[in-house]
Amino acid sequence: MAKAVSAEFIERYQVEYQKNPRSRVFAPLAEAYRKLGLLDEALQVAQAGVKIHPEFASGRVALAKVLIDQNDYAAAIEHLKVATRVSMDNLLAHSLL
Known about the structure:
By secondary structure, the protein is mainly alpha-helical. It has 6 helices and no strands. The radius of gyration is 13 Å and the shape is globular.
């Protein structure tokens, strides 16, 4: 069962992201948006973050989860392959792949 996303956490992530869009906080922010069903916002944040941090496995996983929710499995697989290559011990990336 997925944990509910609290408004407090989302606000904290949004503030941090607005202060520093180059921060790795994009991954939990994108995940929070995804859990709320805000897939367009999640995709935008995740894609921007992965562009800045291409070797950040958790960011790739966050992006892949959004893509899976959008039924874009081919793109999700590509991001998960990168995530497993850059972080071989990322169990979530392996599980999703």
